[in-house]
Amino acid sequence: MRTGCYTDDHGSQHSVAHLLKKRETSSFVKAEDIVGRQDDKNVIIEMLFDPSYDAERVTVIPIVGFGRLGKTTLAQLVFNDKSVRQHFDLTKWVCVPEVDNQKAVLEKLYGCFTGEESGNRSVNQIKLQIQDSIKNNKYFP
Q1: Measured between alpha carbons, how far is 84 from 73 in angstroms, rounded to an integer?
Q2: Do residues 77 and 29 lie in contact, with contact meaning Cβ atoms separated by under 8 Å?
Q3: Residue ranges of the domains in the chain?
């Protein structure tokens, strides 16, 4: 987790960790405004479409690097690509900034896939509901 402080518009100081927990992204990006990421996008899309990946397993393709290099923008470009949208039955954008709380991450996923709040469900109940909502589908979260 990054350290440091920032001061908001009201003069209050907050840690960078606090800011990152509040950061939200969306899937929206204007592809025509992005320059120089086409090759990276194509490599990731090739990996997504690679038939050697078993449909029964969850495949994770990490996009790593220092802040402000365009990792989120690259993910947005892949997510919004027409061929990706046509390849998968479900496509969902979930923003999970540096959170080390499994239940918080699962609650975000649950809300994305079901359109509901998880309420007082246990971690196991949340996992079961997510699995039920995506079964028999090729999905791209």
Answers
A1: 16
A2: yes
A3: 89-141
* Residue given tokens 């960790």 in the structure block: 17
Please give the Cα distance from 126 to 118 (Å, whole number): 7
For 11, 22, 24, 92, 133, the CA distances from 81, given in Å and listed in that order, are 41, 27, 21, 13, 23
Distance CA 40, CA 46 (A): 10
pTM across the whole model: 0.74
Chain-centre distance for alpha carbon 5: 26
In angstroms, the CA 84 to CA 105 distance is: 24
Express each pLDDT in 12-65 by its tens digit. Answer: 555 555 555 567 889 999 999 999 999 999 999 999 998 887 666 677 888 999
Angle between helices 102-114 and 123-134 (to 10 degrees): 30
Q: How far apart are CA 5 and CA 20, in angstroms?
A: 11
